[in-house]
Design goal:
This protein has 287 residues and is an alpha/beta fold. The chain has helices at residues 10-21, 25-32, 36-50, 69-94, 106-112, 114-123, 136-145, 200-212, 225-233, 243-246, 276-285, and strands at 55-58, 61-64, 98-104, 127-133, 150-154, 163-176, 192-194, 218-221, 239-242, 257-269. It has eleven helices and ten strands. It is globular.
Amino acid sequence: MPASLPDLSIRQLEYLVAVADHRSWAAAADAVGVSASALSQGLAELERRVGLPLFDREGRRRVLRPAAAEVLAHARQVVALTGDLAGWAERTRAGTSGRLRIGMIDAAAVGHFSAHLRQFRTDHPDLELMLTVGPSGQLLDDLESGRIDVAICVSPSTQRRGVVTAPLLTEDFAVYSPDGSRPRRPSTWGPWVVFPEGSHTRALILDALRELGAPLEIVAESHQPDVLRAMVGIGMGWTVLPVVQAEMGTDALTNGRVIGSRDLVVATRAGGATDPAAQLLLTALGA
């Protein structure tokens, strides 16, 4: 006979997410609109229903136990999916009015789809489009936690829990030299100004440079392509950037040599209700 399911309330799961995301118990209580004592009672009831202690005491503070990670991951997914359902119901009632929260990496927001976004806002003036621009890892975290509804990002190297992706486009990245000449012999390239450690795009770039036998001395890092372009412009080093980011603006780089590519995807929450506004936007982007 299968084990009976714990009778968990969405409100209790929301309390758990709030405590994990805020620095203090009072801030978490304020975020969900209850008193600190009501928050404490709700979480005590959650522990009772799960059947496991979720918190340890450190002095007067209560902190999540490592063993609570699975419960927290479940809570994030349930709260986000419930938000999707509420948003879908509201938007279905209201048509294309309401709010759509989308996250994009800067190459997508500024390079590939700026004109699409501008036209979409013109075509749907009653829809509040909220745009978050950030690195792919941050956007996927925001998607999992329910802070955004759709993410346009670099295809993740590993499957993210509760996230599904669909291909959008493939873009080239190229090597650029400080003197603006076309890069030829890889053994003479560098030193480098590149994206920071932990960036999936950086990993793709370094793999491509290794295959070509280029030296990998790194002298500066930045998440911002315009900062990397500026550092190349003042002679700090060479860089590798997606072509759409490197060859735009007043400080555009020239004579790049394509050495690889990366895939951009549309990421959504697995099992979420289909959002008509999101579908409208993705159609406008050509997804």
